[in-house]
Records
---
Amino acid sequence: MYLVLKSTVAAGQRINAGNVVELSDDVARALLAMGRVEAAPVKPKASPVVADRSVALEASDTPVVAKRGRGKRNED
């Protein structure tokens, strides 16, 4: 996997800067020498975070959402 630094054409396809692409060894070696790509950093896979999205239920920890509305007319 390689990070494209400058837009270029490789293997008959246009690849834009910022994309992460997989290239063959000979194409990658040539583009590395020209400074058009660099090896993409390997990111460790993050464990999925479970989010509690419930609102105003018995099991919910979040406060009740305040609804906007018109105030009462004769509020004295």
---
Amino acid sequence: MRFEPLLLEEWLLKCRGAKIDLDHSAAPTPYGDGFDPCVGGEAWLDELELEEKIVRALAKQYKVKESSVVLTSGCQHADSLFIQTQVSPADRVVIEAPTYTPMRAYLKAVGARMSEVGRAPEGEFSIEPSALSKVLGKGAKAVLLTNLHNPSAKMLDDQQLSAILDEANRKNALVLCDEIYREMSYGTPTKPLASLGENGVSTCGLTKLWGLGGLRIGWLVGPEEVVEQVKWARVLSTYHLPARSLSVALKAVQKKAWFRERVLKLAKENLKVLDDWMEEENRLDVVWPDGALMFFAGLPKGVDDEKLAMRILKKHKTAVCPGTYFGIPGAIRVTFSCDRADFAKGLEHISSALSEMV
């Protein structure tokens, strides 16, 4: 396999010196808010024991058998292992567009043929059943989605997800849904895709809701034959996961409700800031999020998203992400995992830079 540079990662490195980070979509690290990483006796367990405990906890939360869960080195790792084990060169795969670009990059690396199903701003980033049926009709091995959608933070509900699974099942296709933002929904989260149909696969990890990306712990939930293949691919590539990370991860998974409450509180505070800003700033076409700590906004016609983002970074020391890096130029993704003051100041910087370019 040959891998090309990942523009999202290159942009992240450019933004490291930013004073206001509106590019980081994960919750803040929880250690200062009351989550204690000290794990006592759990730290003395070996990797296998800890993995078994986390798998048991996740199986209970997802309401599946333990044999339907496998741990990985993060959600992105789970996505890539699914592609590695389920997709062969020249297989056709349906992928949403725009989407989280590492999935597209990995498909390209394995030599898969990609067919896009659009998730357009004018359609609230939903998926039209007829459009999905059309691309599936070309013969597809799998469908790849995100929910909440990355980068728009819009949600496909249970009914829509079930319809997608049914349509894919008629073509004998698996559906993978990256659900890293699912439980950051402002309302009741949708059900995991893996619980809605036998051909559904859910991936997640501790990066976004938990703010514990540094642990590099994720998981995949799905059909047992898929889980078994992913398990061996992980063992052969990275072996077992680090005991220290696993011990902290176990404690975090068991406190999921606390982490969700924390994120919703931060979202509520910053959504008020966003609402106030939108009353004054009418040049951007803001897509109101269904969850997570981010929103997506279309730019005025003729404004280059990469140039705007670079101007905001260089002149105002504020980081936002160009939509081009998700496959939708002429837009930006803005996050609000910071405090209210920084978020408000960052939004002012977006308006200032926009005035300089329009």
---
Amino acid sequence: MRAILRCLTLALTVLITTIPADSKGCIKGAVIGGIAGHYAGHHAVLGAAAGCLIGRHAAKQHEQATQNHSPDPSY
């Protein structure tokens, strides 16, 4: 039990220190990934981490797409 808690603490510490401050899409992705990971074999933490990364990537793509389609203010 102690080994599991130590591994979990280490994983969360690494995860917290490497997540950028801009977290658009991360929370939603983490929730969905955590739920999916839980049902896919009790891997909720891994699912949440992967969901956060995927959610952030999708938010960044959406942000770039909306910037490319915005009208030019010089008209």
---
Amino acid sequence: MHQPINEESYVRIDVHAHIGISSELQVAGSARDVVEIMDRNDIDQSIVSPIPGYEDPEGVADSRRQNDNIAAALAEFPDRLPRGLGVVEPRHGKAALDEVDRVMRDLGLSGLMFHNDFNGLSIDSPAMFAIFERLAQYEGAIAQVHTAVHSVLEAPYQLGTLAAAFPSVTIINAHPFMDTTHTRASIDLGERFPNMLFDTCVSHQHLWGLEKAVESLGEDRIMFGSDNPYFTYSADIDIVNYMNVSDEVKEKIFWKNAARVFGLKN
């Protein structure tokens, strides 16, 4: 039987949390809402980004507001929300590129988040390449990119084209283990692209997906993610907690890998 880790011996850093209002999914969470969910789930710190599906009738101006909200959240809860990712929309074309600079240079965020099912252009579109070219100019830049095997806009293989073209950018494959096919596709990407990491968000529980990912990719490339505020209680905590791996590996997944990637001291 898989034994849970001693819960008093570790912290949890969540690399997959969102702030804002998604009219598309009818989900909303302010910075305070996200922190309250963290408290209910004993999550110590979260990396936050704008929620996918926010309305942007004013184009880049709406993206700027989303990014300002993330910067404000970090300022309001510096101990709980120590790092943030911004957003730019590839459908805004060249007009989005200056916002990449503002996110990285002026707001001091760690990188960008993409959910291409919501932004309308594929992960490997020319507009995404232009954004990554600008992002890659910043040392230590991180891109969190959602993938899904059922999607024509965020298929895992499309993320591989960006990983190959921009090896200096640390890419977090977001919710990469949602089913058995997705898990196999994500592991294949990880074996080919060392600049790609993975979170546990919405992990499928069948056939030991996370254990197989650790076996194939190593214990240093998988980080805990929950998808806060889309839940009341995070099932991903239990999935990691009951993995058939050592406590040392669980600690890396729950917080040590995220602390290393985002430059956090714990």
